[in-house]
Design a protein that fits this description.
This protein is α+β, with helices and mostly antiparallel strands. 23% of the residues lie in helices and 23% in strands. It has 10 helices and 20 strands. A hairpin with a 5-residue loop joins strand 9 and strand 10. The longest helix is centred in the N-terminal third of the chain and has 17 residues. This is CubicO group peptidase (Beta-lactamase class C family). It comes from Motilibacter rhizosphaerae. Pfam families: Beta-lactamase (PF00144), DUF7586 (PF24491).
C-alpha cells in the first residue's frame, strides 16, 4: 500500500477516535482478500497507560453477529433443508408469529417488535429459548407483515432457533463448524478471550468512563453475541466478496445483497437485504455489510464487492463512533488504489446459445442479447426505452437476476426444424425484426404488415 494512502487512512481513524472520545478504536481495510492495513488508537482498558489495540484484540461486534446467522440460514437453503418462504411455524412451532416467513425475518419485514420481552436484553443475563418463547404474545406484533422495514432483534433470536432446530445443535456450534473453522477465524468467540477490550460508557459532559456489563444473551445471542478481531473479520469479508464458496456460494451472496425493504432513517439511500444492510453511495457504488452496537461497543463492517475491498472498525464505547468512517475508508481506497479488474479472456469453448446474441425487438423496442461467458447474458436496451436485466443459466434455462425480470425465465423458442423462432420472456415475445409478421406474436400482426401512415 502506498505510504500516502496509509497516512490518510490513519488520519481518518485517528480523527474518529479523538473526536468521538472513544477509549480505543481498531480499524482496518481488506484488499485482494487480506488485511492490507490496520491501526489501533487509544487504550483498550480505558487507562492512560493501557495497551493500544492491535489486529488480534477482541471487541464485541454486536449486530454483525446477525450476518453469521443469516449465512447459516442461507446455507440450509442451499442444502434444501428449508426455503425462505417457509413460515416460522414450520421449524419453530408455538410462537404467536408462526405465519412470518424466514425471508421476512431475515429482511426485518416481519413486523415484530424491535426488542425481546423482559429486561433490556443487552445488559442483563439472557434466558433459554423456551423461557423467551413463553413471554411472547401478539402484543409483540407491531406492524402488518411485509409492509415496511422495522428492525427486530427478536426476529434474529427466532432465526437462531430455526438453525438450532434444523441442524439439531446450538447455533454457536454451527457457526464455529460451518463458518469460523473453514475460514480460520480462531479469535471469534461468544465471550471475550484476552486480549480483549473492556466496554465503556463515556460521560457526555466529562472525560470519564464507566464500565458496561458483559452478559451471555443466551436465546438472544444470535442478535449480537459474538466477539471478534480485525484479523478474523478480514477473513470473514471473503464470504461477501465471493471468495469463500466453501462457506457460501457467490450466487447466494448476491441474493443476500439485493435491497429488499427500505430503511427510511438515513438521509441517503439505504435498505436491507437478507441479513445484510445495503447502502447506495452518491457515486452509484453499493456497499453491503452491517453495523454493530452493544453496551460498551460499536462496530462497522462494510464490503465493496465491485472494488473487492472491505473496511472494519471497532470501538469500546457505547456511543461516539461516527457513522461514515467505514465508507470513508473505502472511498480512500477507491480514490488512491482502485481495484484493477482481471484481464479479459475469451471463453474456452463456443457458447451453445451464440445464435441468440445480437439485436432483438420487443414490439418496436430495440434490445440486444450480450453473452457473458458461457452461463450469463445481459439483455441491453439499445434506445432510450426498454428494460434491461442480467440473466444466468440455471438448470439449462436463463433466469433473471435483477430489474423487472428478476426471477423470470427467458426461453429460446425454436421451429420444428431447430432454428430459433423467437425469445419468450414472461409472455413477452422478442423477435429479430419489429413486430415480425412471420413470428408468433401475441394478438397477431395485421396484414400486410408495416405500411405508410397515409
Amino acid at each position: 500500500m502506498r505510504p500516502d494512502l496509509e497516512a490518510q487512512l490513519l488520519a481518518r481513524a485517528a480523527r474518529s477516535q479523538a473526536e468521538g472520545r472513544l477509549p480505543s478504536l481498531a480499524a482496518g481495510v481488506v484488499q485482494d482478500g487480506s488485511l492490507s492495513w490496520w491501526c489501533g488508537r487509544g487504550c483498550i482498558d480505558g487507562t492512560p497507560s493501557g495497551s493500544e489495540p492491535d489486529a488480534d484484540t477482541q471487541y464485541r461486534i454486536g449486530s454483525i453477529t446477525k450476518t453469521f446467522v443469516a449465512v447459516l440460514v442461507m446455507r440450509l437453503r442451499e442444502e434444501g433443508r428449508l426455503e425462505l418462504d417457509d413460515p416460522l411455524e414450520t421449524h419453530v412451532p408455538g410462537t404467536p408469529f408462526g405465519d412470518r416467513s424466514l425471508g421476512q425475518l431475515l429482511a426485518h419485514a416481519g413486523g415484530l417488535t424491535a426488542e425481546s420481552p423482559g429486561d433490556w436484553w443487552e445488559r442483563t443475563p439472557g434466558v433459554p429459548f423456551d423461557e423467551l418463547a413463553q413471554r411472547l404474545t401478539t402484543e409483540h406484533e407491531k406492524l402488518a407483515t411485509g409492509t415496511r422495514f422495522h428492525y427486530s432483534n427478536l426476529g434474529f433470536g427466532l432465526l437462531g432457533r430455526v438453525v438450532e432446530v434444523v441442524r439439531g445443535r446450538p447455533w454457536l456450534d454451527c457457526a464455529r463448524e460451518e463458518v469460523l473453522e473453514p475460514l480460520g477465524m480462531v479469535r471469534t468467540t461468544p465471550r471475550p478471550e484476552a486480549p480483549a477490550a473492556q466496554g465503556f460508557a463515556v460521560h457526555p459532559w466529562a472525560d470519564v468512563v464507566l464500565p458496561e456489563p458483559e452478559e451471555d444473551a443466551v436465546a438472544m445471542g444470535p442478535a449480537g453475541q459474538l466477539w471478534s478481531t480485525l484479523t478474523d473479520l478480514a477473513k470473514y469479508a471473503g464470504v461477501f466478496l465471493g471468495r469463500a464458496p466453501q462457506v457460501l456460494s457467490p450466487e447466494t451472496v448476491r441474493e443476500m445483497s439485493v435491497p429488499g425493504v427500505v430503511d427510511a432513517r438515513p438521509s441517503g439511500w439505504s435498505a436491507y437485504g437478507l441479513g445484510l444492510q445495503v447502502h447506495q453511495r452518491p457515486d452509484g457504488r453499493r456497499l453491503t455489510g452491517h453495523g454493530g452496537s452493544m453496551p460498551g461497543f460499536l462496530a462497522s463492517f462494510l464490503v465493496d464487492a465491485e472494488q473487492q475491498t472491505a473496511s472494519i472498525v471497532m470501538a469500546n464505547a457505547t456511543s461516539g463512533l461516527d457513522g461514515t468512517i467505514g465508507a470513508d475508508l473505502l472511498d480512500l481506497l477507491k480514490e488512491r488504489e482502485p481495484y484493477v479488474v482481471p484481464a479479459w479472456r475469451a471463453v474456452p469453448e463456443q457458447p451453445g446459445d451464440l445464435e441468440i446474441a445480437g439485436p432483438w425487438y420487443w414490439g418496436v423496442t430495440p434490445l440486444a442479447v450480450r453473452l457473458r461467458g458461457l452461463d450469463a447474458l445481459d439483455l441491453v436496451p439499445l434506445g432510450p426505452a426498454g428494460r434491461g436485466a442480467r440473466f444466468v443459466r440455471v438448470d439449462g434455462a436463463w433466469v433473471g437476476l435483477d430489474g423487472y425480470y428478476a426471477g423470470e425465465t427467458l426461453r429460446v423458442v425454436r421451429t420444428p426444424e431447430g432454428a430459433v423462432s423467437h425469445l419468450d420472456l414472461a409472455t413477452f415475445v422478442l423477435t429479430r425484426e419489429p413486430y415480425e409478421p412471420a413470428a408468433v406474436q401475441p394478438g397477431g400482426v395485421e396484414a400486410p404488415g408495416w405500411r405508410p401512415l397515409c
